[in-house]
Design brief:
Layout lengths: L5 E9 L8 E7 L3 E5 L10 E4 L3 E6 L6 E7 L8 H7 L4 E7 L3 H14 L19 E3 L4 E3 L3 H9 L4 H6 L1 H15 L32 H13 L1 H4 L21 E5 L2 E4 L7 H26 L41 H8 L12 E9 L3 E8 L22 E8 L6 H13 L8 E7 L3 E7 L4 E2 H10 L11 H20 L2 E2 L8 E3 L5 E3 L6 E2 L19 H4 L7 H16 L9 H10 L13 H10 L10 H4 L11 H7 L4
Helix pairs in contact: 5-15, 8-9, 9-10, 12-14, 14-16
Bound molecules: adenosine-5'-triphosphate (ATP).
Length: 655
């Protein structure tokens, strides 16, 4: 039999005529039904089949040891004897009682049934007594019910449908959790105790997320804004506190304590396994943040960021052909967050503490980032002799060279540690496919100037946008296959370098690929980089930009350097089709689709060569162990299609 989710022997009785009789049955859960068979040979019709859509509640009950009750709506299709018809007359709900051999088995059944029943939350697996949290859909009202108000509002304004919920309610929940975290929303905490359904006025979507209602170019620029806003909206874990359990769930269940890592509601009952995981992730992220700040205090000028967190039962990454190194140090003790002065002090281990204005002449603004503006400048003087010791010996500096200067007002930055992160990674990462960091200055402990090589071609997104704009809104690639192959190869080389140094970039996308007038392609934006060690070869922090995000990040699982490979695959689709998958969807729906849909596909796969398709297929398996490492990708035939920098240089328009 196909689609079996769980099966095994149980005892059961239904209410009705023979309600005193416990009968041994072989129970099967598939995608649509709970089927009760007389034996495990399944050679007869089931004695009872219960449509999962009819199940309105499942709860543990003290009727018998290891027992739960399934409450389902009466179904006209039920074959009722006259006696049983009489029995059920006044009751539109029916109960089935199931008793399992062991406590463990009971939990297994509860989890499996909750995961599959559309009228149940999919998020809850009660382990003791009565399960009180229901999330479902009211077909009459056309609304989701039983969800926290904040989620209700988000669902209302999103394009997530009942069908989506029915298909994979877990993915919807994951998307909601992720969306909230990503935006630093606190819908759950801010809610009142009253339970409401989704019959609410639509919440005004956050401006940065109105990406689905616009024309392609506006959409893209808005999505760019969204991407640019990431330092405001991402890494909420770095600032968020542990949130209480949603207080507006039905029956006003609220979690009041965390005892022995298990969640209890006010009655001391266990609730929602997913929420336990969710809140534990929150705690871990908070600890990670503390660890990062602790690290800054200890940081010496030659080290790169080493966030330290005890990853939850971190498995060792199996595919380590990307050159993950041996562990570098043990977990640091976790202490309180460092303050502004400490961050400045640490920045000064990398940046020169002098006013650099006399050394540079500003020419024009080259771009605007979330943390500050980037200027094209000319070096007109070298720093003083005694400051030269701070200058990285990798870089040769000459008067009259053109440089990019990123000016950051530190006091205005909500996420100074990200800037620090970027500085440290750039200082240590010198490679021809990484934007070259030259030096940095701190002015009056207020302003940070990061001096980089100037990439006059701007970012890859601009090239893709220019093509979209010049083609009457029709999406087509600005680049031919050999140019795309070239960009991918260069990006892979940069990633190989980073991964070989245990660094995950975590935000690979066209915005973070810069081009120069020699046709060179380089990775930039290291704010979200993180270092892996063998002990912590998988991480669980949520970073990146939604549309490029790997499913394991959206699903809040542990992850490793392969998230960059996924993002590279999405960037490849972006280059072929002009935009990443799901850009037309609202972000919440996009997150749901990433979590649920598996590998995204090209809209017109027939338009690209087999080599390109093979490469893409290697980048985008949902199963991480099936996804190629960057080292492996570099052997793919697709990269042999690459043109040279000269040809590439001629093909792209310079600003
Ligand atoms: N080295 C460079 N050479 C030329 N232009 C650059 C350089 N670095 C950045 N830019 C331009 O400046 C824009 C903003 O860059 P920045 O790195 O600040 O962006 P961001 O990643 O969105 O911001 P942030 O790092 O503050 O989050 C880029 O989109 C790019 O066009």
């Amino acid at each position: 039999m196909k689609g079996i989710k769980k099966e095994g022997w149980i005892s059961y009785k239904a209410d009705g005529m023979f309600s005193f009789l416990w009968q041994k049955r072989y129970l099967i859960l598939n995608d649509s039904y709970l089927l009760f068979y007389k034996n495990d040979r399944l050679n007869e019709e089931p004695v009872l089949s219960v449509a999962l859509t009819s199940i309105s509640n499942v709860s543990r009950i003290q009727l018998k040891q290891n027992c739960f009750e399934i409450l389902r709506a009466a179904d006209q299709r039920d074959n009722l004897s006259a006696i049983n018809s009489y029995f059920y007359e006044s009751n539109s709900k029916r109960s089935i009682f199931v008793s399992t051999g062991t406590e463990r088995d009971l939990h297994g059944w509860l989890d499996a049934i909750f995961a599959k029943c559309p009228l149940l939350s999919g998020v809850s697996s009660p382990t003791n007594f009565t399960h009180k949290v229901h999330v479902g859909f009211d077909p009459k009202m056309g609304n989701f019910v039983g969800v926290p108000d904040g989620w209700a509002k988000l669902l209302q304004t999103s394009e997530i449908t009942y069908d989506d919920w029915n298909r994979n309610s877990k993915a919807v929940i994951k998307a909601l959790q992720f969306y909230e975290d990503y935006n630093g929303l606190d819908t759950i905490q801010s809610e009142k105790q009253t339970h409401t359904s989704l019959g609410l006025k639509p919440l005004k979507s956050p401006t940065k997320y109105i990406v689905n209602k616009r024309s392609n170019s506006i959409k893209r620029s808005l999505s760019k804004t969204l991407r640019k806003n990431k330092t405001d909206s991402i890494l909420p874990a770095y600032q968020s506190e542990l949130k209480p359990f949603p207080r507006s769930f039905e029956n006003n269940n609220s979690v009041t304590s965390i005892k022995n890592s298990k969640l209890y509601d006010e009655d001391g009952m266990h609730v929602s396994k997913d929420y336990v995981a969710y809140l534990q992730t929150k705690q871990l992220e908070k600890r990670e943040q503390q660890a990062i700040q602790q690290h800054f205090r200890r940081h010496d000028s030659n080290a790169i960021l080493k966030p330290h967190r005890a990853a939850p039962s971190a498995p060792i990454a199996k595919d380590h052909d990307g050159g993950i190194k041996a562990p570098t140090e043990d977990l640091l003790e976790l202490k309180d967050a460092g303050d502004f002065d400490e961050i400045i002090m640490k920045m000064k281990t990398v940046a020169i503490d002098v006013n650099p204005r006399p050394y540079f002449q500003m020419i024009e603004k080259a771009g605007q980032g979330a943390s500050g503006a980037v200027y094209l400048s000319k070096r007109i003087k070298l720093p003083q002799e005694n400051d030269l010791r701070f200058l990285n010996s990798h870089c040769h500096r000459i008067v009259k060279e053109r440089v990019a200067i990123k000016q950051i007002h530190l006091s205005k930055q909500p996420k100074k540690q990200l800037i620090m992160n970027e500085l440290l990674v750039m200082n240590d990462s010198h490679h021809e496919n990484i934007v070259n960091f030259l030096e940095a200055y701190i002015i009056d402990d207020e302003e940070l100037w990061v001096i980089m090589e100037y990439m006059e071609g701007g970012c890859l997104t601009d090239i893709l946008d220019a093509a979209a704009g010049s083609n009457d809104g029709k999406k087509s690639s600005a680049l031919n296959e050999s140019q795309i192959s070239y960009i991918v190869r260069e990006t892979c080389q940069g990633l190989k370098f980073l991964h070989g140094n245990n660094i995950i970039h975590r935000d690979i996308k066209s915005d973070n690929i810069l081009l120069n007038s020699r046709g060179l392609v380089k990775i930039t934006d290291f704010g979200f980089c993180v270092e892996l060690t063998e002990k912590r070869s998988k991480r669980a922090t949520m970073v990146g930009t939604p549309y490029w995000m790997a499913p394991e990040i959206v699903n809040q699982k542990q992850y490793d350097e392969k998230v960059d490979v996924w993002s590279l695959g999405i960037m490849l689709i972006e280059m072929i089709e002009g935009e990443p998958p799901y850009l037309n969807e609202d972000p919440l729906k996009a997150l749901y689709l990433i979590a649920n849909n598996g590998s995204p596909r090209l809209r017109h796969a027939e338009l690209v060569s087999n080599k390109t398709r093979q490469f893409l297929d290697a980048c985008l398996p949902v199963k991480v162990e099936m996804r190629a490492s960057v080292r492996k990708l570099l052997t793919f035939e697709f990269l042999s299609l690459a043109c040279g920098p000269e040809e590439f240089k001629l093909a792209i328009k310079w600003r």
